[in-house]
Predict the 3D structure of the following.
Amino acid sequence: MNVNSIVDELRSLGHEGTRRVLLNHGAHEPCLGVKISDLKKIQKRIKQDHQLVLRLYETGIYDAMYLAGLIADDARMTKSELRNWVERASGPLAGSTVAWVAAGSAHGFEVAREWIDSDKEFIAAAGWATLSGLVSIKQDSDLDLDELKRLLGRVQRTIHTAANLVRYQMNGFVIAVGGYVSPLTKSAKEAGEKIGIVSVDLGGTACRVPFAPEYIEKIEQRGAIGRKRKTAKC
């Protein structure tokens, strides 16, 4: 398949209602309003093609960019390509598509540490989301636990003065460390207690910001602490 035929298919699958919901959640124009379930059907049909992935993302169409992340061969992404992606991403793409692909790449930790220091809200948010993705898929033996503990301390000190979307992703990082990295579950819960309730403007949507210690405790109750995922992508 080529980019034009895929974009034509995406246009045919667009729904105005879905489009309005996506825009309300921060998606950028042009946005066609394709349901994620329909994107995943296309994902199953398309074989991985790195150049196709890059061209889909370059269209600037929200739905095509999201699809690019789903079908990307993360291991083939270069640091330059990841940096280009994060610069072009809107809020939802930065915290999902870009972060998922970065986490699955060979450059995840490097770009995540670079991005969390950015003055740009979307980029900093992508950095924290990438770190969340990394702890969800990497074995504890492949993680720098001391560094993760330092990052928990950084979140504790700075979350309430961080930009809106950065606060949301920082809170998610605390939950991810607590849920996926069993040696740091206690530290994450303690950090969450000290942080307290995190206030984020979610644009009038029905989304809520979870209280990290309570969320981690629910994971504990399911017996799922430390259970890793095969991929950061949803």
